[in-house]
Amino acid sequence: MHLTASKRAAITLALGASCVLAVQGLALPSAHAATPAAAPAKSAVSPVGAAETAVARSLAASLASPGWRAQVRTAALGSAQVDLGSLTAGRTAPAGLAAAVSGAGRQIAAAKGLGADTGSLLRVRLGADSMKAALTPDAVPLVAVAADDDKGAAVTAYDSAGRAHTLSARQAPSRPVYVVDIDVDKAAASGLAQVDKAFRKAGLTAPAATGGYWSTKVNSVYLNDDEEPWILGDAEIFSIVSGFGFDGKVRVDTVDMPYLDKDGTTYYPNQILVNWSNYKYNLADVVMMEDDGDTNYATLAKALADALLTITDQGAYIPLVDAILAAIPSAWYTNDADYVDSWYTLAQGSSGQLNGARGNGRLNVSPYFVQQF
Question: For labelling alongside 139, which of 76, 234, 270, 284 has CA 20 to 30 A away?
């Protein structure tokens, strides 16, 4: 699930103070109304993209071997996502490909600020279900990398002879294409654990109260539909929940939402979004983001910590959404860690449908008491 550039318009249009006043009827302190600077042009190839491309070329070359090609075909038809680390770990895998996958995995983990123990992050999938009929034993598929620009008109794919082919990003080709991608579910889970660890070290989290506690539970969640290129796979959604802890400092909690794969679909997770025993006030803010592959979680944690540590409790609740958005590096408002939507001043007693401030998402929530046994 990826969001089009039109839905990633400048944050001032979606979250300026006037918008917040219109949506919430609340006055937002100007100190927290900062807007990210315009995103600079992205470099031609990110470190993650470069590593993925190297693997794609290596995988494409390996498909010249009929025996190995058959193994990849069986794996691709048997699973929507195939872990490349596991696939190339056996003795039958070409040695050069196994080394390329292993080396690229280390590069990607470093580029995303993840620990060496994260495990394999690369995966391969068939580009579209419509290609299954063409994936015959004699077919030699092309190999492409999941695009990092969801408005791009073309996709580059490689054949077993090393030649590059330009494909339409909007129309799936009839020839089968394998797509090399990041396991964003695994990357986000590991990355958010790193973020939480950094927040604890910075004092942005504190031990929660013991015993039962009131929470806000997500009954259902929906993100608006948009047209998607065939080359793009599912994205990983996570939310940043913020408020003030009992020590007077800003508290930040991350909530992974790995089930939120596609736009235009209502999900019913019954997931705890806010643990109110963590917060001094009965209000909190939620910022929903997506990781399309390039997110560096170490940088995210540092940027948020540096910004939020300067905000102190003034005896009344201060909305924190704009402070969080202003802290996130502006380059991420492209196709990296993308801003999805936000909910200002979510209350402990909030119930029913809550529309996001930018109108892209909606949550149905209810208070829920978590009982300790």
Answer: 234
| E strand or H helix at 364 | strand 361-370
Ramachandran angles phi, psi of 289, nearest 5°: -125, 165
Q: Name every residue whose Cβ is closer than 8 Å to that of residue 251 and which is 6 or more positions away in sequence.
A: 204, 205, 206, 242, 243, 244, 245, 278, 279
CA separation for the pair 202, 197 (Å, rounded): 9
pLDDT over threshold 80, residue 241: yes
**Helix 47-62, helix 95-111: angle, nearest 10:** 170
Identify the three-state secondary structure at position 269.
Answer: coil
Q: Is the separation of the CB atoms in 128 and 230 below 8 Å?
A: yes
Cα distance from N-terminal residue to C-terminal residue, the chain:
38
Geometric angle at alpha carbon 222, from 220 and 227, rounded to 5°: 155
Q: What's the Cα-to-Cα distance from 21 to each of 27, 92, 243, 343, rounded to whole Å? A: 6, 62, 19, 13
1 vs 276, residue with greater confidence: 276
Q: What is the pTM of this model?
A: 0.67
Average pLDDT over residues 218-226: 83
Hunting for tokens 């958005």 — which residue is that?
Answer: 325
Q: How many CB atoms lie within 10 A of CB 300?
A: 27
Rounded to the nearest 10 degrees, what angle do helices 297-308 and 184-202 cross at?
30
Contact 101, 84 (CB under 8 A): yes
